[in-house]
Design brief:
Strand content: 25-35%
Number of strands: 11
Distance between the termini: 157 Å
Oligomer: single chain
Order of helices and strands: HHEEEEEEHEHEEEE
């Protein structure tokens, strides 16, 4: 009896193990088949995506060629040109007037509408603009002859910037300035403005950047601006060179 009972117990586990192996192997075949199908689908998607990439690259290359060669269609310049707005000019004018009032600028001081590098000068009808661009107004004409090159002129002046702020004054220094005309002692606009004045005359000049001082890191001025000067011409003297031994100078009397 013990031998009969032991026989089926030995044979049954072996059959169960075979059936499980078959199930596992069948499941592995199904998983492999599914993976193969997914790989086929991925290849199909990639095959459809490759022509799209190539077409996109061709379009980019064509666009780059047209832009670099200048063959691309140009846009209308009216869309790029910035039109001046009267409201902006009025706002900038009021802003300049407010700053000049804060800086205690003198009466009838010119106004400057600055927008970037473009500046519009607003003055009364009493101002005159010369061919060089210098703007001036005579408050008193004076008497006598105008100074000539080589002569010495004695004068007082007050300098202002566009905001009406005083930047220099010989009145505050306590003594007038003296220069000889034609020696490049002052900026071109200043010499032009004083050259046709008469002793006793008072004039306001507006010097544009073209006739002003040089601009750069090695100079006092960092940007191109208009400068305003109130000038009072006091006198004119003739000058001559004097030489004593090895010493030479210019004497004005």
């Amino acid at each position: 009896m013990p031998m009969i009972l032991s026989t089926p117990l030995l044979s049954e586990p072996s059959c169960l193990s075979y059936s499980r192996v078959g199930v596992v192997s069948t499941q592995r075949k199904k998983n492999a088949f599914c993976c193969f199908n997914h790989s086929l689908k991925d290849n199909r998607v990639q095959n459809r995506y490759v022509p799209y990439q190539e077409e996109n690259l061709r379009r980019r290359f064509l666009l780059f060629f047209l832009v670099s060669s200048g063959l691309s269609p140009t846009l209308s310049s009216s869309g790029k040109t910035k039109s001046k707005n009267p409201y902006d000019e009025k706002r900038l004018l009021e802003q300049n007037k407010r700053r000049q009032k804060e800086n205690n600028a003198p009466e009838d001081f010119p106004n400057f509408i600055r927008e970037g590098f473009e500046v519009k000068v607003v003055t009364s009808d009493d101002y005159v603009k010369s061919d060089s661009g210098l703007i001036y107004r005579d408050y008193e004409v004076g008497k006598g002859d105008c100074p000539k090159a080589g002569q010495q002129v004695t004068f007082h002046y007050i300098g202002y910037n566009e905001s009406g702020r005083r930047i220099d004054s010989t009145y505050l220094q306590g003594s007038p300035a003296r220069i000889r005309l034609g020696t490049n002692a002052v900026v071109p606009g200043f010499e032009e403005g004083i050259r046709d004045m008469r002793p006793g005359g008072k004039r306001r000049i507006i010097i544009p950047p073209e006739l002003g001082p040089p601009v750069g890191p090695s100079t006092f001025f960092s940007s191109k601006q208009f400068e305003v000067f109130d000038i009072e011409l006091l006198g004119i003297k003739n000058c001559q060179r004097r030489t004593i031994a090895f010493y030479s100078d210019v004497v004005c009397n």
